[in-house]
Amino acid sequence: MQKIYGSASEALEGVLTDGMFIAAGGFGLCGIPELLIAAIRDAGVRDLTIASNNAGVDDFGLGLLLQTRQVKKMISSYVGENAEFMRQYLSGELELEFNPQGTLAERMRAGGAGIPGFYTKTGVGTVIAEGKEHKDFDGETYILERGIVADLSIVKAWKGDAQGNLVYRKTARNFNPPAATCGRICVAEVEEIVPVGSLDPDMIHTPGIYVHRIVQGDHEKRIEQRTIRAA
Fold first, then answer.
1. In this structure, how many other beta carbons lie within 10 angstroms of the beta carbon of residue 67?
2. Tens digit of each residue's pLDDT (9 = 90 or more) over 51-83
3. Cα–Cα distance between 170 and 30 in angstroms, integer?
4. How many Å apart are CA 81 and CA 152, to the nearest integer?
5. Taking a C-beta distance cutoff of 8 angstroms, is the pair 196, 161 a contact?
6. Angle 98-113-174 (CA atoms, 0-180°, nearest 5)?
7. pLDDT tens string 175-209
8. Transmembrane region positions (predicted)?
9. Other CB atoms within 10 A of residue 101 CB
10. What is the rounded distance in angstroms from the CA atom of residue 125 to the CA atom of residue 48?
11. Angle subtended at Cα 56 by Cα 172 and Cα 126, rounded to the nearest 5 degrees
12. Sheet strands (E) in 93-133
C-alpha cells in the first residue's frame, strides 16, 4: 500500500467532506499538523467538528480554520492564546465542549483502542459532569466519558517511514499518539521520511498500522510565548 504523498493537499484528497469530525494532535503550537491544517483551509470544507487540546493562535494552527469560519464545534481543554476562538465562543458563533486535558487524551486513546467509554473522577461536581452518567466505585463517584472516534486524524511527527511508523520528538508526544489512533483515517505529516527498517522498533510511538497516508514537509515551528532576558 502506497502511503507517501507529495503534498498535504494530495494526502487529503478524497478524504475531506463538509461536517466531518477531525481529531488533531499537538499542544499549543508544539507538534501541530500545520501543513495539513493549511490544506484543510484551502480545501474549503465547512461545518467541521474538531477535537484538539486547543485551537492554535489567531493566525496559525487551527486558528486558521476559525478565521475562515470552517469550524462548527471545538472539543478542547483550553481557549487561551486565541482571541478569535474566545470571541466566537462568547458570541455564540462556535459550539464548545470543554474537556479536562487528561480526559480528552483518554477519550482519544479509548476510541483508538475500541473502548466505547470509561469512568473517571475528573469533573465530578462541576459543569463537566452535567448530563453524564454517575456511578459509585468503592464509595467514590465517577462520571462516564465516551471514547472519541473521528472521521479523520491529523498528526505531526518527527520521523516516519514508508510503512507509516511514526516517532514524535519530545513535547510533540502529547496528543499526537492518541489522536493518531482514534481516526478512521489517519494522515501524518513528518519532518523526515526515513528508510524502512532504520527506526528502532522500541522507539516507534505510533505503529504504521494506524497510519494511512504520510507527507514530508518543512515546518515553521513558531514559539507561542517568547520570553527573553533583558540585554
1. 14
2. 999 888 888 999 999 999 999 999 999 877 788
3. 10
4. 25
5. yes
6. 50
7. 999 999 999 999 999 999 999 999 999 999 999 99
8. 20-40
9. 16
10. 30
11. 90
12. 95-98, 117-120
Residue-wise pLDDT for 107-139, tens only, equals 999 999 999 999 999 999 999 999 999 999 999
From CA 211, how far away is CA 177, in angstroms rounded?
Answer: 11
What H or E segment, with its residue span, contains residue 84? helix 83-90
Which grid coordinates are listed for 7? 503534498
**Cα–Cα distance for residue pair 177/58, rounded to 1 Å:** 25
- Determine how many CB atoms are found less than 10 A away from the CB of residue 105: 20
pTM summary value: 0.93
Contact (Cβ atoms closer than 8 angstroms) between residue 36 and residue 7: no
Q: Give the integer Cα–Cα distance in Å for 38 and 116.
A: 31
Residue located via cell numbers 466505547: 116
Grid cell 487561551 in the structure block, residue = 80
| AA identity, residue 106 | E
For residue 50, the one-letter residue type is I
Q: Which of 7, 40, 33, 17 is nearest to 206 (CA)?
A: 33
Closest of 146, 150, 157 to residue 50, by C-alpha: 150
